[in-house]
User: Which sequence fits this backbone?
């Protein structure tokens, strides 16, 4: 599993979320009381700050070929990774593309990725 985004704990359950000023939108895949369907299989509810227990940003981190990365996406048996080591020569040696100035990304076979874990901020 790969996550990269906000989550909110509400009534003891964790939901994908999107901050909206002081409020936060939470999302569910099934109908529930107080949620409105925004498209098939996608339901939203807006919470006030005093209604939820915690908000956090969750990011999936890993290592690939001994270097640190963020997992951005999954497609079949491949992972889209962004290098976080900050060393351009290493990024080039790994065959990564420079997505933006100093930002290196690439696709890696999922079976080569190690130490995958979630980091909460």
Assistant:
């Amino acid at each position: 599993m790969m996550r990269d985004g906000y989550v909110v704990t509400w009534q003891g359950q964790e939901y994908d979320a999107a901050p909206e000023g002081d409020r936060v939108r939470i999302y569910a895949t099934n109908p529930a009381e107080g949620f409105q369907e925004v498209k098939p299989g996608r339901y939203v509810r807006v919470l006030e700050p005093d209604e939820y227990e915690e908000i956090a940003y969750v990011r999936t981190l890993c290592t690939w070929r001994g270097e640190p990365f963020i997992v951005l996406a999954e497609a079949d048996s491949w992972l889209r990774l962004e290098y976080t080591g900050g060393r351009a020569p290493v990024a080039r040696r790994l065959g990564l593309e420079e997505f933006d100035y100093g930002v290196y990304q690439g696709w890696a076979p999922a079976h080569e990725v190690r130490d995958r874990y979630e980091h909460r901020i």
The longest helix spans residues 88-93. Residues 55 and 62 are 23 Å apart (CA to CA). The chain has one helix and eleven strands.
